[in-house]
Structure formats: structure tokens, C-alpha cells
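Researcher: Please translate sequence to C-alpha cells.
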Amino acid sequence: MSWVKAIAYGSTFLFIFRIWLNITMQIAPHPLLSGIVKHYLIIAHDQRVPMNYRLFSDGNPGIVFHFKAPLLQYNQQHTVTSKQPGSFVYGQITRYNDIISAGELAMLIVVLQPNALLSLLGVAANELNDNTVSLKDLFGRDALDLEDRIANTINLPAAAAIAEQFLLNKMASKRKRADITDRAINIIHANKGIINVKNLLDVIPVTERQLERKFEEEVGISPKKYIDAVKFQTYLKQLQKLSSIKELSSLSYACGYYDQAHLNNFFRRHTGVTPLQYKANHNLLAINFMPLI
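Model: Translation complete:
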């Protein structure tokens, strides 16, 4: 749904966001931004105790705005935590991360299209892999004004509208030049990740090296890794709907995995948990963002 429709539900809807009840909600972008923004994701909960979360790749970069205390994020060695900026851009996630919330959580995530960073920021996407960069370091005074306006909104859908107008203004004078990766990404999603790089090269008139270079610059990861990410996201969505664990092997096969043991290893390497542990977690904040239980 659009943010306009979201706000139109009325005072009851707005009241929900004022008191930060547990909620996860997706909002569709303005059509003019559909090539840059995949959706806006609103996450809020009213837990007042520290919570540990795990975040792993969904194949998309994004922009985060915190409305409560910023989260603490572990370093790669899992020995030191650092506070996330109040607002920041993040690139492709190539390894899972553990994150700590000190208490109540309220955040707006602008989930970007996988190849949006180069057009939006003018930097190669792979430079931001596994990185968070403060919004003010990228947009200067404009970012500070944006943060101030968003911080003073009465509800998260209104914050999404403000962020959307900011992006519309930023993209007004730019033209997205990602025809090759756009086409490849559309094909990969149409096949739910059950495809290989050779299949892409059969229909896209570029060499394998050209495709690799385009993906590294515009998406941040190789075509093969992006295919893996899409296939894995498809599997996770179906795993959530699975009625019986007896159907686990048939689900794996249907999603393009031909060896359950190989999938189990891939799953643990990318999420740090097993498929059954993921399935047992009924408190997901997003498909790739879960409390550790």
C-alpha cells in the first residue's frame, strides 16, 4: 500500500504508532521511485529489556532511521560493539551480524533496489559492502534537515513520506543507468533464483566478465551471489509457510536445492542457525531480521 493509504486509516492507526506497539509493516514507494526503492519497512516494538537480534542478507542495500536509541552492532570478531548512527546507509550484507537493542525499538528502513546505490550516491556499490555510512556524511546539511524533520513526525508512515520526498528531490536530476543489471535482476526474480549465470548470458548480450563487472559496481556482489540471495529468500518465505517439517526435503527441492545437507550448511553459514531453528522463531521482525532465542 502507498503511504497515503496507510495514513488514511485514521486516528486509530496513528495512535498505534504513537505508542510504538509491536508492528512490522511494508509500504510501497511512489511509482517514480520504484526503480530506486523496493519498499519502506516500519519496525517497532515496546520491549523495555535488552534484546539480541541477528541480521543477514536479503540482497538489498538500504537506509535506516532510528526513532529510539540506535542499535549496538558487533564487529566481525564478535568482541566489540559500536553504536549505529541515528540514520545511515548500508550496503550489501555478505555475512550475518548480531545486533543489540537496549529497549524499545522503532525504525524506518528504506529498502533500496539491489542496484540503486550507484545512482543514488554516485559511488560503486561494492565500496559499501558490510558497511554503514552516516547519512550526514553522504548528504551533509540536507541529511541533518531530513533527520530533524523525521524526528519530529508523529508517526512512522509520515516519516516514510518525508524520506520519500527527500529521495524524489535527490533523483529528480539523475537518470538511473542500470539497464543490464535491471534486466538481469528481473530475470533472476522471475525465476525465483532457480537460474544460473549461463542462462542470463543466453538472453543478455554481454560477456560474463562484463556482467560480473556491472554487478560488482551496481549491485555490490557477483551475479552468482545475487542469484543465491534471491533463491534463499524464496526458500525462507516458503519455509515460514511450511505446515510440517516432514515436508522440508520436498520444499528444498522445489526451491532449487538438490541436496538437503548442502542446503543446511549454506543456511547455517549465512544465518548462523539451522532451518528448523529459523522455522521455530515466531517473532521475526523481517525475513532477514530475527530475535535470537
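Researcher: Any highlights?
Model: The CA atoms of residues 3 and 157 lie 6 Å apart.
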